Amino acid sequence: MTQTQNTLDWTAYTRWIVALVVLGMMLDGLDAQLLGLAIPSLIRDWGVTRGDLTPITAGSLVGMALGATFGGWFGDRFGRRTGLICSLALFGLATGIASQVHGLGLFGVLRAFAGIGLGAALPNGTALIAEFTPLRHRSMGASIAMLSQPVGSMVAGVLAAAVLESAGWRTLFIIGGIAPLAVALLYWRALPESPGYLAGRDQAAVRVSPGSVLQGELRRDTLLMWLACFMALLALYTMLSWGPAMLAAAGYPLGFAGSVVTSFSLGGIAGSLVVGLLCRKSGSRTAQAVIGAVGIAAALVLCLLFSRGQPAQGAVLALMAGIGFSAAGSQTTLYVLSTHFYPTGLRATGIGVMLGVGRLGAVASSFAGAAALDVGGPVAFFVLFAVAVSVATLACRLVSRPVVASHAQ
User: Fold this and answer.
1) Does domain 9-408 have CATH number 1.20.1250.20?
2) Is 10 helix (H, G, I), strand (E, B) or coil?
3) Distances in whole angstroms, Cα of residue 392 to Cα of each of 177, 182, 329
């Protein structure tokens, strides 16, 4: 840790900076949700199949993997502020242009570029929040960073419920393009650079590479966090990418998908908050055990209900909140771990490479989610989620240097 981090106070100014970063990460969560919400409309408007869209969802997630891996390195090399501004500008431009295209080819290319921007936002935003947050509050700072993602997804769900039927998916993409460009301009004028980065930029931060996270004593826990992140994002993006399509195939109206996304996101907000509190009070192992148990239980109940027919909408809404609680909470646990585990000069790179590997799980979800729906419908879909969360929970609990209660205070 740096002397700068030790002397930070939780002042109105630092809270304002954290709020600014959260705004950008909310838009990241909103934009990441747009493709999943648009899939049923694209199938209807363009006369394509779910299989035709699988390469596009995969390409978007490959872009996120690349953006996270090299965007984190970019932030450690050139600054978290610069990395965050560039990421917002990229996914805002790509999303706005995508709202005007009429073919799968160009649409897929633009979603891949948007994915690069989306992937780069998370490591830089998380590192910036961690480095503007006093050390004793870092667990909650990481939790706030993750909290912004389901809030953004919830906003996307609310927008979809309001305009998808009447105005179409293009309106959603126009909003998803303009908003991040406006925030990027705001950051250019109002967002300062991380004090931790400025203090160390002439030393370790200029020599790091993605491979640095596998050196020496970092290797074992890094690999475990990679496995946990891969499975957590497989679970999360199976729901984000294919949840609306699963509900449409099960006979629910398109507007209901937006309501389910909102419920899922509210659960994710609660999960992120609970992880931050539990990490401070009981440590990261207890936090992940609680988060994992809730998600596995909710998924198994949904398997039972769908095996008997079409469940009532209220039951689906309630249980999908539990799914969101677990999906977002599992990722938040990893954010908390990584902000404590990696030193300042390697922090954005460590978070970014972990997320880059995790995004491969998101890529796998493009195929695994579609395959599960084709093979076993909603039942197989939720079994996939339960298995992924189980593996993520086990890997997270095996990390040899977890956040413990006395260190999280």
Assistant:
1) yes
2) coil
3) 33, 36, 11
Q: Is 404 left (phi over 0), alpha (psi -120 to 50) or beta?
A: beta
Q: Are 225 and 338 in contact (CB under 8 A)?
A: yes
- pLDDT at position 187: 92
Q: How far apart are CA 88 and CA 187, in angstroms?
A: 10
Which alpha helices (H) appear in 282-346, and where do they start and end? 284-307, 313-341
Dig out the tokens for 284 from the structure: 């990261």
Average of pLDDT values for 232-238? 89
383 in Cβ contact with 303 (< 8 Å): yes
Look up tokens 């020496």; give the residue: 216
CA-closest candidate to residue 262, choices 316, 299, 332: 316
Per the CB < 8 A criterion, the answer to whether 363 and 236 are in contact is no
Task: Please give the C-alpha separations between residue 395 and each of 98, 221, 222, 226, 255, in angstroms, as whole numbers.
Answer: 38, 9, 11, 9, 37
CA distances from 165 to 37, 97, 174, 249, 353 (A): 11, 21, 16, 17, 38
Question: 38-67 pLDDT, tens per residue?
Answer: 888 888 888 887 778 878 877 887 888 888
From 203-212, 237-246, 248-257, the region with the lowest mean pLDDT: 203-212
Q: In angstroms, rounded to a whole number, what is the distance separating the alpha carbons of residues 386 and 396?
A: 15
What are the tens digits of pLDDT across the range 358-379? 878 877 887 888 888 888 888 9
Residue 83, class by beta-carbon neighbours within 10 Å (0-12 exposed, 13-18 middle, 19+ buried)? buried
Sign of the C-alpha dihedral, residues 383, 385, 386, 388? Answer: positive
Domain borders along the chain are 9-408
* Nearest residue to 199 via CA among 403, 330, 6, 391: 6
- The SS3 of residue 223 is helix
Q: What is the pLDDT of residue 243?
A: 84
Specify whether the CB–CB gap between 25 and 122 falls below 8 A: yes
User: Which of 276, 272, 252, 279 lies closest to 325, judged by CA?
Assistant: 272
- Check if the beta carbon of residue 363 is closer than 8 Å to that of residue 58: yes
The string of pLDDT tens digits covering residues 219-230 is: 888 899 999 999
Tokens of 7: 């002397």
The distance between the two most distant Cα atoms of the chain, rounded to a whole number of Å, is: 62
